[in-house]
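Schema walk-through. Below, the input block comes first and the output block second. Nothing else is stored per chain. Lengths vary across the set, and this one has 428 residues.
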Amino acid sequence: MAGPLEGLKVVDFSRVLAGPLCARTLADLGADVIKIEPPRPDVSRAAFPNRDGMSGYYAQQNSGKRNISIDLNAPGAREFVLRLCDEADIVVENFRAGTLKGFGLDYDTLSRRNPTLVYVSITGYGQRGPWASRMAYAPTVQAETGFTHNTLRHFDSASEGRRWTDPLSHADVYAGLQATIAVLAAMRKREVTGRGQYIDVAMAAVMLSINERAHLDLAGIDTGAEPGILGAADGPHFIGPGGEAFVAAQSIVGSNTFPNYLRAMRRMDLAQDPRFSTAERRLQNYKALHAVIQTWMLSFRDLKTLDAQLDEAKIAMGQIRTLKELAETDWAKQWGAVHEITDRRGGSYLIHGYPWHFSDDELGMRRAPAFRGEHNEQVFREAGLSDSEIREAIDTGILVGGPPSPAQQTPVAALAQASELQAVTGEL
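--- output ---
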C-alpha cells in the first residue's frame, strides 16, 4: 500500500490506544510499522468481541502493522530489537515514564546508535515533574483536566446523574493524534538538520490544547444563561416529521442564535413574548420554547424539506444515527468510510476508513491485523539475520508466537497475562 509516508520505518512499542493509534495513523499514511509485542500480549487483544485470539478492538488500532513477539528478558533479545531501531526512522512508546530505559531502549541510548531517530513518548503527565510517575488512563486524565467537569455540567441531573463521563477515551485518542502531528513536524525538521529528536507528549497537556473553551474555564468565567455563539453546549434535540431524532447546531437560548429560529419559523413576534425576551427567561421557560419550535418542525412533510428551511436560516442539523446506520448512507459508501478487513484465519472486522483523500496517493484498503509474532521471521530476515540465527532465536525463546490456537490463547487467558505484564512494566 502506497502513501505519503512510504519508505519510513516505525518501531511501535506501545499498547492499547494512544500509542497504537499514533503508529496506526503512520501506517495508514504508508509507513512500514513493526509492532513489538511481548510473550504476554497487548491487553487489547483480550477485548470483546474476540475471535481466536483477535479482538475487534485490537484489529482497529493495529491493522496495517507487522508484528513481532520477543521476550526482552531472554539473553540476547535486546540486541535483536536494537538492530530494528538502528534502521528505524520513528519509535513510538506509551509506557510509564522511564520504563524502557531499564531495557536500554530509551531515546538517549537509541539516538547514540541512530542520530536521525525521531522518538515519541506518550504518558499521562509527561516525563518529568511531580506527576510523572502517576498511572494514567483516559477517564482519569479527563477528570483531572476539566473535561469531565464540563461534561457533567450539561447532564440533566435526574436522568444522567449516575454517569461520570462519556464512554469514549478522548484523552487517548487526542494524544495519539497530537503525537502523530509532532512526529511529522520532527520528520520535517530532520530533512533540514539531518538529526532526529525526542518528543514528550502529556495527555493532560493535550486535553488543555484541544479544549475550545479553555479561555473561559481558565478565567473562571461562567456564562450563566447566555451560551456562547460557538460550541456544542446546547445543541437542542428535536423530532423530525417522520419521527427522526436530530440535533440542531445552534442554541435556542442564546441571544445570537435565537433570532435564527425566529427567522426560520417566520415568527419574529416571539421576540416580544415576555417568556422569551432574554436569554435568562428563555432558559427559565426552555420547555415552552422548545415545544413551540418542535410543533413548527412537525408541520413539515418530511425531514429534507425541514432541513432546507433550517439551512436557509443558517441552522445546521444532524440526524441522530448509530454508526451502523451511518455506514448504510450514500455518503459513507461514496467516501469509503468503512473498511472490512480479514485476518489470516479468516476473521472479518468492520472498522473505520481513512479521514483523508489524497490527490497523488492511493492508500487502498488497510492490511489485515497481525497475530502476535506473525512476522517474526520476515522482519528479522529483512534485518539481515540468517535462517539459522532466526531458528536459534525461536529455539532459545527470544522470538515467540505466531497465530495461537484457541486452546492456547483464550480471551480470558490473554487478559490475565496482559494484566500481569501491565503490573510489571507500569504500562499506561
